[in-house]
Design a protein that fits this description.
Protein name (chains A, B): Deaminase
Radius of gyration of chain A: 17 Å
Structural class of chain A: alpha/beta
GO molecular function (chains A, B): 5-amino-6-(5-phosphoribosylamino)uracil reductase activity
Mean pLDDT of chain A: 95
CATH architecture of chain A: 3-Layer(aba) Sandwich
Strand content of chain A: 25-35%
Low-confidence stretches of chain A: none
CATH superfamily of chain A: Dihydrofolate Reductase, subunit A
CATH class of chain A: Alpha Beta
Number of domains of chain A: 1
Organism (chains A, B): Saccharospirillum salsuginis
Number of helices of chain A: 6
Helix content of chain A: 25-40%
Strand order of the largest sheet of chain A: 5-6-4-3-7-1-8-11-10
Shape of chain A: globular
Oligomer: homodimer
Largest interface: A-B, 35 and 35 residues
Number of strands of chain A: 11
Largest sheet of chain A: 9 strands, mixed
């Protein structure tokens, strides 16, 4: 059966995004540099550079293979409305998912088909319904809970996350959007699976007990 | 010169202690099991079992050596008043530090000498003064900022932490006392030094840039 997984970059102090991350005020609490430190591990990989048309070069080691595997295993994505809204104005025409994407929202909207295999479906019936749709679409591939924090928290509280993959970057944000908040009791239980060392992040992989 | 370091266990969601950790209500949100999961890596080490009179046995690998090194390198400890108050009623006669311990407090009190080389000094003039006293006492050994969270935060905000050692346990607390909060800008900057894998925790070591 498909696995449900999270693969996300996290600051050492537990944030997915720094406080005040907004193009209108690029100097606010140095957020640009913080965000860059969080994403460095990913943007330095050959696979990602190619995907983003950054030109040749990039790392080709085990982290690169992990990034490739993450994309190739994914048969469906689930995301929140805020993440979709931000992406709608910034993704290229060919949105970088190449799978069905289920967007949790209260908004009613027809599916939005993009070139390259990405179709966004707008789900009004909550996270369990989105997961059921994603399972059907993913077939034997896996389901990525893409974000943001609130959506990951909802699936953690449902104890629906099989694998939690965190790229822990050695940067302190001092504020922002926390990954781990608002968890319901009983909290889900994980065990350590593997650790992969990188220069820009430590890749921590946990599996549900 | 002496290094200033933190060596602390942390839950995957960033807490030093679970919510409601109180002997009066041992069942509250399952705190006992959470705390046990956080401390398992430490209490399973031979060096620690001997120190706590837990009897023979225990792990003797690299994590055990790390624990031994942490104690042996320490020439002075600094802690907050709440940590001291909890310890005062629970440490054995021979308090488990064997160094001078500087307690940050507003209370005026004479030094409290314990058998085995631990003397508690009560410092009313703030964290910088406590650090100066600890440096003098530690001579060529290092200074451990023992906790709690608020004291570690004060030294992080002073950019006085040279080495940050975190035993990240694969347990979610869902609430409690967070390590990383209240940091002042500019936040301190660290780089990854080493990672040591354990079954019960991942040992992350960061060095100030």
């Amino acid at each position: 059966m498909s696995k449900v997984f999270v693969n996300i970059g996290l600051s050492l102090d537990g944030y997915l995004a720094p406080e005040g991350m907004n193009m209108d005020d690029p100097g606010y609490k140095n957020w640009g540099e913080k965000w860059g430190a969080l994403m460095a591990w990913l943007l330095n990989q050959e696979y990602m550079r190619k995907k983003l048309d950054f030109g040749p070069g990039g790392e080709t080691g085990p982290v690169n293979e992990m990034v490739r595997h993450t994309f190739e295993r994914t048969g469906a994505n689930i995301m929140g409305k805020r993440m979709f809204d931000q992406g709608e104005v910034s993704w290229p025409e060919e949105a970088p998912f190449h799978t069905p994407v289920y967007v949790l929202t209260h908004e009613k909207r027809e599916p939005w088909v993009r070139p390259g295999g990405t179709t966004f479906y707008f789900v009004n019936e909550g996270p369990e319904r989105a997961l059921a749709l994603a399972r059907e679409a993913a077939e034997d591939r896996d389901i990525r809970i893409s974000g943001g924090a609130d959506v990951i928290q909802q699936y953690l509280s449902l104890n629906a996350i099989d694998e939690l993959e965190i790229a822990l970057a050695p940067v302190l944000f001092g504020g922002g959007r926390r990954l781990f908040e608002n968890l319901r009791e009983p909290v889900p239980q994980f065990r350590i699976d593997t650790t992969l060392d990188g220069q820009d992040a430590t890749h921590l992989r946990y599996i549900r007990k």
